[in-house]
Design a protein that fits this description.
Layout (H helix, E strand, L loop, with lengths): L1 H7 L17 H12 L23 H7 L8 H14 L2
């Protein structure tokens, strides 16, 4: 809604990152998903593929400046929990 309001006020079409500014490792995400869902998540570890960045973090600074965006959740478990609730309702 903030993005639509921005455009209605005459803001230019642009791209912004919606994130927390903090990254999580794949292992951290898998562990949180297992805790939230109560399910064992099978893992197959492999080397990073060519071209994969070693770190990837969404910086929300532009979204904050243009839209007044602030993430509702900044910790991994609540982020995964809200995604899991949405996913289970879509079935």
């Amino acid at each position: 809604m903030q993005a639509l309001d921005y455009l209605k006020r005459g803001g230019a079409t642009t791209a912004v990152n919606l994130g927390t500014g903090r990254g999580f490792s794949v292992r951290e995400v898998i562990a949180a998903a297992g805790q939230v869902t109560g399910r064992r998540i099978p893992v197959r570890e492999a080397p990073r593929r060519p071209g994969d960045p070693p770190v990837l973090v969404a910086d929300p600074a532009r979204a904050r400046a243009l839209l007044g965006f602030a993430p509702r959740y900044t910790e991994l478990a609540p982020i995964v929990a809200t995604a899991w609730r949405w996913h289970t309702r879509q079935r």
